[in-house]
Amino acid sequence: MNQKTLFKLEYDKIIALLEKEATSFRGGQLCRRLKPMTDINKINTFQEQTAAAFTRIVQKGRISFGDAAPVEESMKRLEVGGALSISELLRISRLLGNAARVKAYGRHDTQEESCDCLDAFFEQLEPLTPLANEIERCIPGEDEVSDDASSTLKHIRRSINGINERVHATLTSLVNGSLRTYLQDPIITMRGDRYCIPVKAEYRGQVQGLIHDQSSTGSTLFIEPMAVVKLNNDLKELYAREQEEIQIILAGLSEEAAQYIEEIRADYRALTDLDFIFARGALALSMKASRPVFNEENKIHIREGRHPLLDPKTVVPITVTLGEEFDLLIVTGPNTGGKTVSLKTVGLFCLMGQAGLHIPAGDRSQLAVFHQIYADIGDEQSIEQSLSTFSSHMTNIVSFLKKKAMARIVEHIAKVAAVGREKAKSAYRCDK
User: CA spacing 20 to 30 A to 429: which of 154, 211, 357, 411?
Assistant: First the structure.
């Protein structure tokens, strides 16, 4: 389909509405890339998917696919033996949790419920519950590794807490005791990763310790008392050991996730494909649309069609038939009588239907499959090219006819070539 037609018939606005219904990143991408198709089998497949999603939404309500964040970069890193970060592992965990939730949504509540074309998508989902649970156990939140992730980590953090208590107790006794008169404020502060106290500059010689910083005025020195230097050193060592243990834990979780690379990829594809399909179903529901019936006989029968961008409370439905008793339609009437809207409605319905979207029209509406749709609507005058509005319209129409004629010529050449090949084959067989 040519881009000018898509713009003239406001197909892009329909796609914008569709994209708003998607909840995942890739689902939104698939919506933006959706274009009208010309293969009737593919069109019918998309229409069937949209109809199935519509039915499920009506029966069970909407479901969100928002946690289906992209994971391909993480999968590539796992393939080469790399370790994932906390955020990447959380992303996988949420993806798997979402897969479990969506798979449960996709199950039929009773045996009497009929199967549909979406069952195959739901069956592809592998929640990998043990892996998801292990990640959640070790990583309860963003930038957080649980104490229970390993016994070593629990021991290290217990030691850190013990030393922190000793440091605070020592500094508190100094602040409230012998050093109180030397302090700018009776508080404990941090400079870098070291505990310090704010000492007045004139009392520098009265407080034994290491200077780590000073105030902008120079009146205050931030000193680490000698009484806590060793404890701070022990803390620094323990913090380093903590980070090492966290990396070991993340590497272990990454190694476990690496066993299910293809399953995770399949989950992501299935979830985002379903998001794309359910976006189409949700759009159909919001438009009160129905599935059109497609034919290859160039027949159009739109029953009570309503332009999807007009207010549904005020829009006037139209019924249009083409290709049965006649294939040329001339619409006449007064200004502002709805001629242009009616024509745009027919063209837009054809585009929407061939894109796998339902149309806001009555049941059993029929559409044909067109390889090209041409539209010449509105004021097309060009001062630069010395074209009046009428001349511009005629120029566009002539170009449409030329394209149609060229298509017929190509089709005729193809038929002649096919006949020639058959004759050549027959002659070859006769010679033998």
Answer: 411
